[in-house]
Structures are given as C-alpha cells and as structure tokens.
Amino acid sequence: MNTTEIFLIAMLIIFSLPWLVWRVFNTDYFAPLVVVQILMGILLGPGLLGKWSPEYYQFVFTPAVVQSLSGIAWWAVMLFVMIAGIELDLGQAWKHRRESGITAGLALGVPLLLGCGAALVLLKYPGWIGPKALEWQFVVGIGMACAVTALPILILLMEKLDILRQPLGQRILRYASLDDIAIWGVLALILMDWSRIGKQAAFLVGFIVLGWGFRRLMAWLQERDRWYVALIWLALCGFGADWSGLHYMVGAFLAGAIMDAHWFNQEKLDQLRHHVLLVMMPVFFLSTGLRTNWAVGGAEVFAAAALLLVVSVVGKLIGIQIAGRVLGWGKGEATIIGWLLQTKALIMIIFVNILLDKQIVTSESFTALLLMAVASTMLTVPVVAPRMARKM
C-alpha cells in the first residue's frame, strides 16, 4: 500500500474505534468521548499495541504517516489552546478578585507543592527526568502538571451537569481562568533559555507591539473577517514563540489571550471548539498515545501515576477546603468545587507534551502523567453528580 492508503487506515482507526467503544459501552457518565479517545491513543501506542503486535503497528504507523498525523495534531491543538485563551474572562475575575484570587491561588498552590514533593521522590530513581532538564525544571514541571485544571474539559463536564450558566458554574470558571494564566506563565518560566534570552525578549517585545496593532485592527474589522485574521495571528504567534525557544503552544495561548471574546459570536465560538474537538483533536490524542513508553517497567509507571494522582487529588481538595473556610462557603460546596477543578485531561496533556518535546521529562514520566490526567478526569462526574443531586 502507498502512504496515502496507510494514512487513511490510520484515520479510520482514530475515528471509528474510540466512538464504537464510547457508544457500545455507554461510557459517557465516567469517560466522555475525549477521554476514551485519549485512552485509545495510549492503547494504540508503541507501549501496548507496539508490544502486542509490532508488525501491525509498524505497518500502520510508518514514519511518513506519523509525520502527517503530527502536522494535523499541531494545528488542532494550537486552535484549541487559542480558543481557551479567548474564553478567559479576566473581567469577572477582577470584579471578584478577592474570592477568585484566594481560591485560585490555593487550588493551584497546594497541589503544586505536593506535586513538587512527588517529583523529588521520582528524582531518586533513574528514568524519569529528561536528558535536557535541570532538576528544578523537572520538579516544577511535574508539580504544575499535578495542579493543572483543564478549562475546556471543565466546560464540557459542567454542561453535562447543567451548572455551566448557573452562579456556581460561573464562579468555577473564574477560578479555572486564573489558574490557566498561571499554568502558561510557569511553563514560559520553565522553558526560558538563557542562551536564547535575546530571541525570547525580542519575541515578547514584538508580541506587545504587534498585539497593540492587532487589537486595533480586530476592533475595526467586521466579524466575518476577524475569524480569518485570528488564524493568521495564531500562525504568526506560534511561529514567533517557537523560533524564540519557548514553544508554539505558548504562542497559541498568547494569541488567544489577547483577543476579546465579545469580538466573536459566542455560539459560533462554541461551535468552533466543538468542531475542532470532533474533526481534528482525535488525531492529537492518537499522536499523544504514540509517545507513551513503558521502558522503565509497567508496574513502576503505574506506581508513579498512582502517586501523582493521589497528590493531585488530595492537594486540590485541601486547597479548596482551606479557601472555603476562609471565604465562609456553605456546607459541601468546597468538595464539589474541588472535584470539578480536578479535571485535567486536555490542557494537562498539552502541557506535558511540551515538557516531553523539550526533553524535560522522559517518555516514562510522560506516560505516568498521562495516566494520572485520564484517571483524575474520569473520577470527576461520578464523584460530583451524586453530591449535586443531594444539594438540589
């Protein structure tokens, strides 16, 4: 078969297999389709399918096919991160800055500290820290991965629970929005390359100058032109960030964060997010699965994932419980908020993909973090839904 035919076989697998599992086993309650797609990506990766059936794996996932899939995945995830940046509502966070600042700070800070502690444990054993990482980069990277909240998946789960447009849902979005900014800020710090500091400074200065002109242009344009110009801006910011040594994903987030949500029709923006998830992001999930590795040993990887899951869940719940006591929340409210902010999936997976790209973590660390992200997301609805029902 030629490369095109094999590529289409890969696309057939990517879109059919997760959907069939999701539908046949009716997993939506504990594992939305995006989570099933991530799991199938892991199963189809070299650590599992590559071990079970190396001939079939090598036949389908040839270097040419993987390269083609990677190109689609890069653009898909850049679009997704840009949309997440656009949807940040900093105005509301500022309006409720005391409550939002305390809650977001504790929701991020406590699991970050516990995650850093878990990273220090992993440092004692070989095979976890990447070849180009300084120890502090590895520790802070793992800690932040434990603290991440995935805003896009959080929106999907709150829609499922029918609380997105309610006051509680809007509060949770404010907390997650502030944490999103912190995540990308810490990532930029981790990726700061002192040998390329001139390029990185040039990118940031250029971004500020061009961003000022871009905002004036977008305010002047009609909405139908804004969509197209936004894509040009996304490509430019992604290129600039990657050229400077940060990462194209940092550029994608900045590209979206500088845009105002009211420039776009909210319904169309929601549809764009939905269509990117439907049409393109499954390729990213598969590409992510192809990067998993169990070379350290399956038991060790699962043990590391369990450790990271415990510190992530416990840290988030402790942080939110402290915030609830300080702010005088009602009974049970902190537990619901803590579990909803535990949702990790997409943004955390994007975050650790970048750490892997920059060789700050190894494939084994990446696999453990991926398993932790999937498990924490799958726990959310089963834990929250009964509590929401009792509250109502």
Distance between the termini: 58 Å
Question: How do the SSEs run, as a string of H and E?
Answer: HHHHHHHHHHHHHHHHHHH
Number of beta-strand segments:
0
| Total of DSSP H or I helical runs spanning 4+ residues | 19
Q: Residue share in helices?
A: over 70%
What is the percentage of strand-forming residues?
under 5%
Please outline the major beta sheet: none
Structural class designation: mainly alpha
Q: What form results from the Cα inertia axes?
A: globular
Outline the low-pLDDT stretches. Answer: none
The Rg value, from CA coordinates, equals 20 Å
Q: What is the average of the pLDDT values?
A: 87
Explain how this protein is built.
This protein is mainly α and 392 residues long. The chain has 19 helices and no strands. It has helices spanning 3-24, 33-43, 49-52, 54-60, 63-86, 90-95, 97-123, 135-147, 151-160, 167-191, 197-220, 223-244, 248-257, 266-279, 281-289, 298-327, 333-340, 345-357, 363-391. The relative contact order is 0.17. The mean pLDDT is 87.
Briefly summarize what is shown.
The chain has helices at 3-24, 33-43, 49-52, 54-60, 63-86, 90-95, 97-123, 135-147, 151-160, 167-191, 197-220, 223-244, 248-257, 266-279, 281-289, 298-327, 333-340, 345-357, 363-391. It has 392 residues and is mostly helical. The longest helix is centred in the C-terminal third of the chain and has 30 residues, at 298-327.
